[in-house]
Task: inverse folding
C-alpha cells in the first residue's frame, strides 16, 4: 500500500460519488419528461434545451430558500433525519461495480483498478444493511416533525420497509445460491463483483444440452432466476417508496407524509436521496440479474479508451431500462390500499420468494449431486 | 497504528452511545445512542476481519430490532413526557451492587495482566473478510447445532404468533 494505491482508492470513491451526483438530476428530468409524455403533457421545457436544466434550477431555488423549523419539532432529530436519508443512499451504490477493472502500469508496477467504490466480500449483505438503514430517515423525520401527518407517514414507512425487506433479501438469497453453481473460481460469493464475473459468457457454459441457440443468449441470472427478478423489482419499488407503494407520502391522505414539514435544502436532501435510491436499486438489479457491466466491448473496432468505457455504457443502459420500468409503473398503476400492500408483501411475495428459494435449491442440488435414492 | 486510532475513536463513540441510552431524557435519543453503539461495534468487527459479523450486526440489530423499538417509541409522540417511576423494587441498589462486582472483576483482570493489546495475527496479505471460513466451519463441524438453532427460531416465531392470536379459553376456530 503506497501513496499511488491510496490515491487510486480515493479517486475510485470520488468517481463513484460523482457518477451518482451527475446522473441524479438527469434522472429527475427524465422522470418528469416521461411522466409528461405518458400523461399527454409537455413537461419541463423552459430551462435549457428540452428543459434539461430544470433540475439544477430547482436545486438552486430550494437551496436558497429560508430554513424553517416547526415550533413543535424536536430540533436535532429534525436536522439529522435528512442526513440519515442521504448517507445510506450513497453508501449503497459504493459496492456496485460500474465498469470492468482497468489495468494501468504506473512506474513499472501493474495496478488493477476495479471500477467500484469498494469490493466488499459481503457486498450483498452490505446492500441489505444500507437499505434497512434508509428507513431511519423516514421514521425520524416523521417523529421529530411534531405533527400528525408526518407521524402517520413514518409509522406506515416502518411497517412497509420491514415487510418488503424480507422479500428483497429472499430474492437476493436465491441469486447468491445460483451464483455458487457458476463459480469458475470455485464456490459461491457474496461480492457483487464476483456475481457479475459469474454472469460473463453465454448460456452455453451452463446449459449446453439446449443446442446452438445457447451461444447467443448471455449467461445472465435473469433467465434462470426470473421469478427472483420479478420479486426483487417489486420489493425494490416498495423499498424506495415509489408509486404504487408510495403510501408513505400519499399526498391525498397525508399531505406529504414524512416530509410535510420539511422545506428548502432539507427537503432537497430527501429528494436527492429518493432519486439516488432509485438509481442505486436499478443498478443493483442490473448487477444481480442483467449481467452487470458484461457486454461486447468491440475491442477490434473501437479505439482502446472507448472499448474500455463500453462496460460502463452497458451497465448504464441496463440500469436505465429498469429506471424506465420504475417510471412506467408509476405512470400506469394507481396507489394500493394499505391492506392490499400488506397482503401483497406478506401473503404473496414472501411465500413466493421462499417457495422459489426451495425450488432453486432443489434444482441446484439435483444438478450437482443427482437424484436422491436412485 | 490505524487500528489503534479507529479503536480509540469508535470506542469513545460506543461508550458515549451506551451512556446516552441510560441518560437521555427522550427515548428516541436513547435509541439513537444505541444505534451509534451498535455501529461502532460493527466497525470493530470489520477491523478484526469479521466482515460477515459486522454486516449481520447492522442488518439484524440496527436494521430490524432497533427499527421495531423506534416503531413503538414513536407511538408515544414527540411532546409527551415519559413515565420515569421505577417498577422494580430495590432496582438502584441492585444495579449499584452488580456494577461494583463487574468493576472489581475487570480491575482484577487488568491488574492481573489478563488483558493485552493483541495485534491482528495474519500471515501474508490481509484477507478480504472471512465469509468462506465461517461458512466452512458452520456447515461442516457445527451443522447440527446450526440446524437445531434454526428449528428453535422457527418454533419461537410460531409460538409468538400463537400467543398473539389465541387468548386462553378459545379454540383455533374461534380466533378465525
Result:
Amino acid at each position: 500500500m503506497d501513496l499511488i494505491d491510496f490515491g487510486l482508492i480515493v479517486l475510485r470513491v470520488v468517481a463513484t460519488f460523482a457518477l451518482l451526483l451527475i446522473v441524479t438530476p438527469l434522472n429527475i428530468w427524465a422522470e418528469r419528461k416521461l411522466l409528461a409524455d405518458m400523461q399527454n403533457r409537455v413537461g419541463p421545457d423552459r430551462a435549457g434545451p428540452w428543459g434539461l436544466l430544470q433540475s439544477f434550477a430547482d436545486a438552486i431555488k430550494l437551496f436558497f430558500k429560508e430554513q424553517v423549523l416547526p415550533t413543535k419539532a424536536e430540533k436535532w432529530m429534525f436536522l439529522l433525519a435528512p442526513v440519515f436519508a442521504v448517507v445510506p443512499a450513497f453508501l449503497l451504490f459504493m459496492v456496485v461495480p460500474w465498469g470492468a477493472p482497468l489495468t494501468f502500469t504506473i512506474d513499472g508496477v501493474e495496478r488493477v483498478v476495479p471500477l467500484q467504490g469498494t469490493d466488499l466480500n459481503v457486498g450483498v449483505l452490505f446492500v441489505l444493511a444500507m437499505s434497512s438503514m434508509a428507513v431511519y430517515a423516514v421514521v425520524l423525520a416523521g417523529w421529530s416533525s411534531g405533527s400528525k401527518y408526518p407521524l402517520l407517514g413514518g409509522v406506515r414507512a416502518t411497517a412497509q420497509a420491514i415487510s418488503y425487506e424480507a422479500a428483497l433479501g429472499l430474492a437476493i438469497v436465491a441469486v447468491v445460491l445460483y451464483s455458487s453453481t457458476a463459480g469458475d473460481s470455485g464456490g459461491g460469493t457474496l461480492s457483487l463483483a464476483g456475481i457479475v464475473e459469474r454472469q460473463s459468457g453465454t448460456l452455453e457454459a451452463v446449459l449446453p444440452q439446449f443446442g446452438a441457440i445457447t451461444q447467443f443468449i448471455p449467461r445472465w441470472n435473469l433467465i434462470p432466476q426470473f421469478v427472483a427478478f420479478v420479486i426483487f423489482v417489486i420489493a425494490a419499488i416498495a423499498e424506495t417508496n415509489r408509486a404504487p407503494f408510495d403510501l408513505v407520502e400519499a399526498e391525498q391522505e397525508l399531505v406529504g407524509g414524512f416530509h410535510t414539514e420539511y422545506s428548502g435544502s432539507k427537503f432537497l436532501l430527501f429528494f436527492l436521496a429518493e432519486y439516488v435510491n432509485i438509481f442505486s436499486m436499478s443498478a443493483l438489479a442490473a448487477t444481480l440479474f442483467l449481467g452487470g457491466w458484461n457486454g461486447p466491448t468491440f475491442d477490434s473496432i473501437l479505439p482502446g479508451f472507448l472499448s474500455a468505457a463500453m462496460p460502463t455504457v452497458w451497465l448504464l443502459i441496463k440500469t436505465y431500462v429498469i429506471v424506465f420500468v420504475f417510471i412506467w409503473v408509476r405512470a400506469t398503476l394507481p396507489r394500493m390500499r394499505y391492506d392490499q400492500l400488506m397482503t401483497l408483501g406478506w401473503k404473496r411475495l414472501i411465500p413466493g420468494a421462499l417457495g422459489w428459494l426451495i425450488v432453486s435449491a432443489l434444482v441446484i442440488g439435483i444438478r450437482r449431486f443427482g437424484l436422491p435414492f436412485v | 497504528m490505524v487500528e489503534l486510532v479507529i479503536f480509540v475513536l469508535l470506542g469513545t463513540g460506543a461508550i458515549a452511545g451506551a451512556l446516552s441510552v441510560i441518560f437521555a431524557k427522550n427515548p428516541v435519543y436513547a435509541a439513537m445512542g444505541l444505534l451509534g453503539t451498535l455501529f461502532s461495534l460493527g466497525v470493530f468487527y470489520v477491523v478484526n476481519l469479521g466482515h460477515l459479523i459486522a454486516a449481520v450486526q447492522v442488518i439484524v440489530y440496527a436494521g430490524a430490532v432497533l427499527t421495531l423499538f423506534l416503531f413503538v417509541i414513536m407511538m408515544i409522540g414527540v411532546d409527551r413526557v415519559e413515565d420515569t417511576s421505577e417498577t422494580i423494587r430495590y432496582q438502584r441498589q441492585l444495579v449499584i451492587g452488580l456494577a461494583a462486582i463487574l468493576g472489581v472483576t475487570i480491575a482484577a483482570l487488568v491488574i492481573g495482566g489478563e488483558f493485552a493489546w493483541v495485534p491482528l495475527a495474519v500471515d501474508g496479505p490481509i484477507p478480504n473478510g472471512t465469509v468462506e471460513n465461517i461458512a466452512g466451519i458452520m456447515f461442516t463441524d457445527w451443522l447440527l447445532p446450526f440446524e437445531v438453532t434454526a428449528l428453535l427460531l422457527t418454533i419461537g416465531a410460531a409460538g409468538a404468533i400463537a400467543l398473539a392470536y389465541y387468548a386462553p379459553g378459545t379454540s383455533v376456530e374461534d380466533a378465525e
In short: Chain B touches chain A through 29 residues (CB under 8 Å).
